[in-house]
Specification:
single chain; Lipocalin; mainly beta; eight-stranded antiparallel barrel
């Protein structure tokens, strides 16, 4: 999801810059200076699975890389429609004396490759495109998808996000092509996930806003 459910350009930087630059869900977020795979297509052209109510709620995780970096990340997953989730990723990273807060907003839907459930996390990034009429470059929002596996165990959500360099092929023309590549690499036992964008979350009660005095 992001880092999972995740900046979403590397500005979750993604799972910490935008889960703008994310699952997972992905998978998912995140630790700070890596980027998850960004695709112009999802694993399915449209949602095909009903919302799983066991995924709904407020999920909390802590990230630590073994140095002086640690981060706090939360995924607020709610039902947007019968087959689409609303995902808000809250993140705060601490590196030495630097504190980097980050909040990113996504939608997502689940699909399967064999028996593995994935979250297709939809976000947007800024890209510079040429306006031919004005003869100058302008910044536009471009839809991207982040892909993360989901596994639910008791009150823990495990998210693993596909890494940017999972394949030598970077551009996929359609969902079928993307699914075939992921299925092929999984069948070859290749690790296509980024440890920095893999995290476990525990479900807690959603924090209530502070009341104004």
């Amino acid at each position: 999801m992001v880092r999972a459910l995740t900046n979403i350009v590397c500005t979750f930087n993604a799972i910490l810059t935008t889960m703008s630059k994310a699952l997972l869900l992905i998978a998912v977020s995140i630790t700070l200076y890596a980027c998850p795979f960004e695709s112009t297509v999802a694993l399915e052209p449209k949602p095909v699975e009903s919302v799983d109510t066991s995924l709904l709620g407020y999920w909390y995780g802590i990230v630590k890389d073994g140095s002086d970096f640690f981060g706090i990340e939360a995924l607020d997953i709610q039902k947007k429609s019968d087959s689409v989730y609303s995902v808000i990723r809250y993140g705060k990273a601490v590196k030495g004396d630097i504190i980097l807060p980050d909040t990113a907003y996504f939608t997502g839907y689940t699909s399967y490759i064999n028996d593995q459930r994935f979250m297709n996390i939809e976000g947007a990034i800024k890209v510079e495109v040429l306006n031919r009429k004005k003869k100058k470059y302008e910044w536009k929002d471009q839809k991207v998808f982040y892909l993360a596996t989901l596994r639910l165990g008791h009150d823990t959500l495990f998210v693993k996000t596909i890494t940017d360099n999972f394949s030598e092929q970077k551009i996929f023309r359609n969902p079928t092509e993307l699914k075939q590549m992921i299925s092929k690499l999984a069948g070859e036992k290749k690790n296509i996930f980024d440890d920095q964008y893999s995290l476990s979350y525990r479900k807690i009660e959603r924090p209530q806003p502070l009341k104004q005095l």
